[in-house]
From TrEMBL:
Pfam families: NUDIX
Source species: Nannocystis exedens
Nudix hydrolase domain segment(s): 33-162
MF GO annotations: hydrolase activity
PANTHER family hit by this protein: NUDIX HYDROLASE DOMAIN-CONTAINING PROTEIN, UDP/ADP-SUGAR PYROPHOSPHATASE
Gene Ontology CC, one term: cytosol
KW Hydrolase (keyword) present: yes
Keyword Metal-binding among UniProt keywords: no
Annotated protein name in UniProt: GDP-mannose pyrophosphatase
Length: 170
């Protein structure tokens, strides 16, 4: 479909709402424009997963998930994954191994969520997350992660996909 007109409705800083009029459609389409995201599934030298417990305002509850966040302008997704891991957990790793990406919600959004595995992650300091984040590192064994996934205790769709991709290669 050919785009006829595009207008910004709202800019929240880390995402924008746009209206797009398309040829052949009676009503415009509403889109959420945002940067790509990353999730870093970290595993320490003992083979335990380094995850994050954090409050998620959208569901007014805590979740357990891999460290993750926005890819900054001009930043490579792998670098963003390592940065987010450090910010949210205080852990670091030498490399971020790509586990692919997904389109979180292609009906409304144009971004991707990139998944990475960080092996041999070691604690190098304390978490120093963004001011609006309430985070705490959580270390879990493989069996604990698998049970949390099976029982629905890890119910964040992107977190589940990232962890399942990591489990498949570990």
């Amino acid at each position: 479909m050919r785009e006829l007109r595009r207008s910004e409705v709202f800019d929240a800083g880390f995402f924008r709402v746009e209206r797009v009029s398309l040829e052949g459609r009676a009503s415009p389409v509403t889109l959420l424009r945002m940067p790509d995201w990353v999730m870093a599934v970290a595993v320490n030298p003992a083979g335990r997963f380094v995850l994050v417990r954090q409050h998620r305002f959208g569901i007014a509850a805590e979740t357990v998930e891999p460290a993750g966040g926005l890819v900054d302008a001009g930043e490579a997704p792998a670098a963003a994954a390592l940065r987010e891991l450090g910010e949210e957990t205080g852990y670091a790793g030498a490399t971020a191994e790509p586990l692919g990406f997904t389109h979180p919600n292609p009906v409304l959004q144009d971004n991707r969520c990139h998944f990475f595995l960080v092996r041999e992650a070691v604690q190098v300091g304390a978490p120093h997350a963004d001011a609006e984040e309430v985070v705490a590192p959580v270390v879990m064994g493989r069996a604990e992660v698998e049970a949390a996934l099976a029982e629905g205790r890890i119910a964040h769709a992107l977190a589940e996909l990232a962890l399942r991709r990591a489990l498949a290669v570990l």
